[in-house]
Amino acid sequence: MKINWGRVLNAGLVAEILLLLVYEFVVRLYGRGTASTVIVIGGCFIFMLVGALWAGRKIESRFILHGFLVGVVATAYYVIRSLPVVYDGEYPMNYWLAAVYGHTPKLLGGIVGGYIAGRLKKTGNR
């Protein structure tokens, strides 16, 4: 079977945009710090998991690959969006450290979401 790029792109972009909106809301309430870090790590995982579940609704195979690609699309969107800030030297923390603790949960959330979508499809709950 082929990769359903439309679902992958939509799920990755929507999940990342929703994550950024939630993050900005939390930062405005509590400021940058522990709360925003927890939101980033937990939110990355959960939003990509839900995005991969949504992407997996209309596919028949390669669920884990589709989930992983949802995380890759979200990561690519974030990297492209933040490049001007990084090049200007205005990024608030070490960019590579942020990439490790911010993007790894995205990939893992997508993989887990793809796995769950595959299991749900196999048992007929979808």
Structure explained in plain terms:
With 126 residues, this protein is an all-alpha fold. It has one domain. 82% of the residues lie in helices and 0% in strands. It is built from 4 helices and no strands. It has helices spanning 5-30, 34-55, 63-88, 95-123. Helix 1 crosses helix 3 (63-88) and helix 3 runs antiparallel to helix 4. The radius of gyration is 15 Å and the shape is elongated. The protein starts with a helix and ends with a helix.
Features:
single chain; mainly alpha; 126 residues
Helix content: over 70%
Shape: elongated
> What's the count of strands?
0
Structural class: mainly alpha
Average pLDDT, rounded to a whole number, is 84
Round the Cα radius of gyration to an integer and report it. 15 Å
Taking the sheet with the most strands, its summary is:
none
Unreliable stretches covering 5 or more consecutive residues? none
N-C termini distance: 19 Å
Strand proportion: under 5%
Helix and strand run:
HHHH
Total of domains: 1
**So how many helices?**
4
